Amino acid sequence: MEITIKEMNRVDLIEVAGRIDSSNAEELGEALKQRVDDGRRNLVVDLAGVEYMSSAGLRELVATLKQVKQGSGDLRLCNPSERVAEVLELAGLDSVFEIYDDQVTAVGSF
Known about the structure:
The protein is an alpha/beta fold. The chain has four helices and five strands; from the N terminus they run ββαβαβαβα. The chain has helices spanning 25-37, 55-70, 82-90, 103-108; strands at 2-7, 12-20, 42-53, 74-78, 99-100. The radius of gyration is 12 Å and the shape is globular.
């Protein structure tokens, strides 16, 4: 799994690529937590490069969402692959997260 972070004025864009499963989900969680600990409350996670996400990955996203919401921020998703979008829908998380088709729309939504 690869994580790339782009810091913008009001938003951090986190691009994730590869597989997110129980062996590396904690790494994603730590990267997101670091952004929040640094005072960044508005996050967009781009899932275009994610070919697989397990429940462990979903847990990290939900935990971070709860954390940023406490600080009046939000975590929004964009570009989920068809497979990841299906996992989000099956878990009922498509109604919890705001999900956008592209980075520009997601970042602009803040």
